[in-house]
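Re: that chain you flagged

S.,

Sorry for the slow reply, it's been a week of failed gels. I finally had a moment to sit down with the sequence you sent. For the record, here it is as I used it:
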Amino acid sequence: MFRRRLLLLLLIYVAACTTQPTPTPTPLANQVELEEQVVYAFLLPKMYQNSGYVIMDTTATSLTGVDNTAQTLDYILQNMHDVDLETVTSFRNRNSEAYPILGDMELGFPYTLLSQAGRKQTFGQNQSGWEVFYNRYPQAPGITTLSRVGFNPAFNQALVYIGTQSNWLAGAGCYLLLKKADGAWSIDQQVLTWIS
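Prediction finished late last night. Pasting the structure tokens below so you have them in one place:
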């Protein structure tokens, strides 16, 4: 009799433990991705003042996407001051390879993701690729490439690459150091890495 009651109590206890939802804290990765969207939402209109954007669907740290991040970062750090080591480490780690840009980001303005295949289809057929592009996307400043954003642990400093090509020989790319004060991002420093 005692064993049955003990078994019954044990079963009730186990059932109660398994049916109670356990709160799960927001993982750091989710916080980073959400803050990254906030940075993109701040940065794009600040840099270009357009009402729509065409963004490459994978991240890169240069116009060509060639992995020269280490050399470029050395150059950037020589031309920026007060960059937290953690911000640089985060940027390096988050940009060790190309990552897909999320198509469901809430940026507060319209944007279209463009794949490499879509880009080749638009520009590979003839010399009027930019005319085709602007007929399709008249509100865009060109084709924008974004890196992933590196953050310091306090999420009040960020490092990001942004580049936009707007015609065959027109465009520029730069690294930006952002700072956050009173809950809002601002551009602290900017280093140009290419221009055409």
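What I noticed first: Helices lie at 2-19, 28-48, 69-79, 85-94, 116-123, 129-136.

Talk soon,
D.
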